[in-house]
Give the backbone structure.
Amino acid sequence: MEVRRIFTHSGKAHADEFLACSVLLKKYPNSTVLRVDELPAELGEYDVAVDIGRIYTPMKVLDHHHDLNIPCSLVLVLKDFYGYDYGELPLSIRAVDMRDRYGPQKTMELTAPSLVETAVLRIFSDTAQISPGDPLHLLLIHVGESVLEEADGLREARKVKLFMTPKGYVAFASKPIATRHLNEVYENIIGAVMPDSRSDGKRTVVYRVGRSPFFDPTRIPLRKSYEHPGGFLVVVDAPFDQVAPDIVTSYCVVNSPANSVPWNAGHRPAPPTVPEEPSNPRE
């Protein structure tokens, strides 16, 4: 299948159609996005419409406004063009769906628009046509790539290896993965180990997951290149396949919270103490 034009509605933009267009542009980067008041009388062979049309025709017109039981356009694009079932999608994407279908007041506890989202959607709202080569077109493609990585999060979470300890599970992931995805799939994850995304596989990250008081990554007996002041994360100078699970479970899992850093270290830091006079004043 080839897509050359992507239609969506004009006027105020929302995260739903913005992300739906982004994901489509990631798959069809030479397409043009057209924001219109109404769809043409007939869509061409290489046209797709998202979030407009008041009908859902798979792979062609992906709108949901006529039926509250149909998920948002982003979810429809992920389903039709990438094969994702709703249950496979992480909470972050399902929250976009809930907010678009039921409104922000009912879903504020799940997610709220960020300042970046508000600013980007304002630009998107003011643009009638987005063609290849436009800065916004490139931004949409990059956003689409991020959405697909996020959508793949739960699939990747189900591939990790779990090691049971008396206090919970420690997850070993062969590629970087958001710990929130681990929490969506499994219960009682206290720690996670995965390659460091910043070092091209040369280092490994050891995390405390959530607020567990029973996992202290700072206790690992390996050389560290970085240790977060909050104590919830360390980066060790060893590739992932050289960080043995028995070392992590033996040293980092603690029997008593008293032997570890506080559960809220790094989450609620005390305000800094400001001396009355600086010890080395500058002119």
User: Anything to note?
Assistant: The two ends are 67 Å apart (CA to CA).
